[in-house]
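Work Package 3 (structural annotation) set out to generate three-dimensional models for the target panel prioritized at the project kickoff. During this period the team completed the workflow that converts sequence records into discrete structure tokens, so that structures can be stored uniformly alongside our sequence database. As a representative example, we reproduce one entry of 231 residues exactly as it appears in the project archive.
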Amino acid sequence: MPQQLRSRGKSPRLGSRGQPEESRAAILRAAAREFAEHGIAGARTDAIARAAKVNKALLYYYFGDKETLYGAVLDNAFSGMKEKVFQVLDSDLPPRKKIMAYVGAYFDFIASNQIYPKLMQGEMMRAREGRSEHIDRLVKSYFQPIYGKVGELLRKGISEGEFRNVDPAHFIPSMIAIIVFYFSGAPVIQRIVRFNPLAPERIAERRAAVLDFVSAALFQPCAPAASGVRP
């Protein structure tokens, strides 16, 4: 039977516990899409299992229930983001280059994982309504460490005269918002501007615009170079 399925061009199901990493990764990818599209209330585990090419029993074997799977999807998303931006924030770059590299790394991560803004938005809504079982863990494990690193970078740049005297409590959410909203608001933006904002060339334009916006909002003007001419 497996040989017959392969001969008909059907991909094999990952329904074996002998492939735990592959099966788990496939479930997380499928679940991220399902939760982003329908939220946790509307997401269906049978649809996730079908998309991941695993049987439903294996899904429950790995994750127990839908809420646990949802939490694992969030952890997978935010741990990837944290790893990406920490590579920059832990570097020895000077403040101006580091903040630009951080914004670029954050943008690139979201651009490569365009369903994540929907996941973020959904979880923020649940937290606001007091229905999130995961928000405290997410804040402690991901949001606070990143916020702390970026806040430290802003204060360093301010003290060295490189950055304007901005308030991190306002500036950091603003930086994140101009990245995330572009992707979460793409369907509305497309109706306004009459082109696909998620086309590769438009994403490249948006990246450049975000970097320009942040630098204009944050950087102190460079002092003019001395001409060597005495008055």
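Residues 1-16, 223-231 have pLDDT under 50 and may be disordered.
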